[in-house]
TrEMBL record:
Positions of the Radical SAM core domain: 1-197
Organism in which the protein naturally occurs: Metarhizium brunneum
Gene Ontology biological process: Mo-molybdopterin cofactor biosynthetic process
A GO term for molecular function: GTP 3',8'-cyclase activity
UniProt KW keywords: GTP-binding, Iron, Iron-sulfur, Metal-binding, Molybdenum cofactor biosynthesis, Nucleotide-binding, S-adenosyl-L-methionine
Name assigned to this protein: Molybdenum cofactor biosynthesis protein 1
PROSITE patterns the UniProt entry points to: RADICAL_SAM
Phylogenetic placement of the source organism: Eukaryota, Fungi, Dikarya, Ascomycota, Pezizomycotina
UniProt-listed Pfam families: Mob_synth_C (PF06463), Radical_SAM (PF04055)
Pathway membership, UniProt: Cofactor biosynthesis; molybdopterin biosynthesis
Presence of the UniProt keyword Metal-binding in the record: yes
UniProt entry tagged with the keyword Acetylation: no
């Protein structure tokens, strides 16, 4: 967190809960089976449980996984209800295991709360909750690279995956190539302590390279965007908080899905009342009670959305521009992309 804080996006520009649900429904209808809610910080959203329940209701239509990425500070207070709402996976961002360093890096207290969230997930999994827990650690030279081995030790007795992420250039994160601690360096460091480190077969579209130490309960992974990119097999799409589609995390090309959605509501944000009215109009249209050119409704802009999404996906490049270009390219700060 920058010392000066971060500018907040105007509420009107952000997707409403009905808009998120509508987009989720459209993507699931096209074969997307995993949805992840990120941020910012999703656990501080007032209606996060309602949102998760509505997205979780898409399971009969093909949704298989509903996940969140969180800092973990308030997660333990909402975790049980989130699992009831359909939560299947948690990516917990944690860059240090030192409480004092945590306070310096995040500019807040909360280390104990994060540990409580981790332990609560592990407790729930012992009785069958089935929550996939991954701890994401961005490794920075001279900042927390000395903690790589302590993070690996977490997997000795805990059923979780620690994922080490190469430091990446985004607006506002004071990028410096010298701070990047590479995948190969991390592997060498870990092998020096654990020579039995073995590669695990990754699924076709995994973005993480997974390894395991014999005798350890958990696993470790590496997200190697900078030195060993995985663009050719990446099938992720991102919707920003203000409704823009990004087909590549490192690309600055975006297209607004929010604006297309809101055509169905005369350009206004779609709240719960408007959403219910639109669903009723669509039901009436299907039953022939309103003319097909009725200006409001859920379906009229779906075809346009699918066309725009299809064009964006087909235009996705085979690989990102490379480190030399990315460090000079204008892109949103990660907090405005969703990580």
């Amino acid at each position: 967190m920058p010392e000066e804080g971060v500018p907040l996006s105007p509420n009107r520009e952000l997707l409403t809960t009905p808009e998120i649900v509508m987009l989720s429904s459209i993507f699931v209808s096209q074969g997307v089976n995993k949805i992840r809610l990120t941020g910012g910080e999703p656990t501080v959203r007032r209606d996060i449980l309602s949102l998760m329940r509505q997205i979780g209701a898409l399971r009969p239509r093909g949704l298989k996984q509903l996940c969140i990425t969180t800092n973990g500070i308030s997660l333990h207070r909402k975790l049980d209800s989130m699992v009831e709402a359909g939560l299947t996976g948690v990516n917990l961002s944690l860059d240090t295991l030192d409480p004092w360093q945590f306070q310096i890096m995040t500019r807040r207290k909360g280390f104990d709360a994060v540990q409580k969230s981790i332990e609560r997930i592990l407790e729930m999994n012992k009785v069958g909750a089935g929550i996939k827990l991954k701890i994401n650690c961005v490794v920075m030279r001279g900042v927390n690279d000395r903690e790589v081995l302590p993070f690996v030790e977490l997997t000795r007795e805990k059923d979780l995956e620690v994922r080490f992420i190469e430091y990446m250039p985004f607006d506002g994160n004071k990028w410096n190539k010298g701070k990047m601690f590479s995948y190969d360096e991390m592997l060498d460091l870990i092998r020096g302590q654990f020579p039995g480190l073995a590669k695990v077969k990754d699924d076709k579209n995994d973005t993480s390279k997974t390894w395991h130490i014999p005798g350890f309960v958990g696993r470790i992974g590496f997200i190697t965007s900078m030195t060993h990119n995985f663009c050719g097999t990446c099938n992720r799409l991102r919707i920003t908080g203000d409704g823009n589609l990004k087909v590549c995390l490192f690309g600055n090309a975006e297209v607004s899905l929010r604006d297309i959605l809101r055509k169905s509501n005369r350009g206004e944000p779609i709240d719960e009342e408007a959403y219910e009215a639109m669903k009723q109009i669509e039901m009436d249209r299907k039953q022939g009670r309103v003319p097909p050119d009725q200006p409001l409704g859920v379906a009229p802009n779906e075809a346009e959305l699918l066309d725009v999404i299809g064009i964006a996906v087909k235009g996705k490049k085979a690989k990102h521009a490379g480190l030399g270009t990315l460090e000079h390219m204008k892109n949103r700060p990660m907090i405005l992309i969703g990580g």
